[in-house]
Amino acid sequence: MLRWALIFFVISLVAGFFGFSGVSAASARIAKILFVIAIVIFVVFLVLALIAGEAVL
Fold it and tell me: What's the whole-model pTM score?
């Protein structure tokens, strides 16, 4: 997920450099959404791991 966010971020930078502001804005928005989804998934798995760790003890 973070790999795709990074890919869209690079696309946004390249498109912005060449003056394609619409493509740049769209790919930056997609990159932000993917980054937030990745962070939410990480937090959910972190909480699940902490809960599972306490259950074993």
Answer: 0.80
Tokens of 14: 């390249």
Compute CA distances 55 → 10, 18, 52, whole Å: 42, 54, 5
Residue 7 contacts residue 38 (beta carbons within 8 Å)? no
pLDDT digits (tens, 9 = 90+) for 13-52: 999 999 999 999 999 999 999 999 999 999 999 999 999 8
The Cα–Cα gap between 45 and 42 comes to 5
Contact yes or no for 26/49 (Cβ under 8 A):
no
- Domain residue ranges of the chain, discontinuous segments joined by +: 2-56
CB neighbours (10 Å) of residue 12?
A: 21
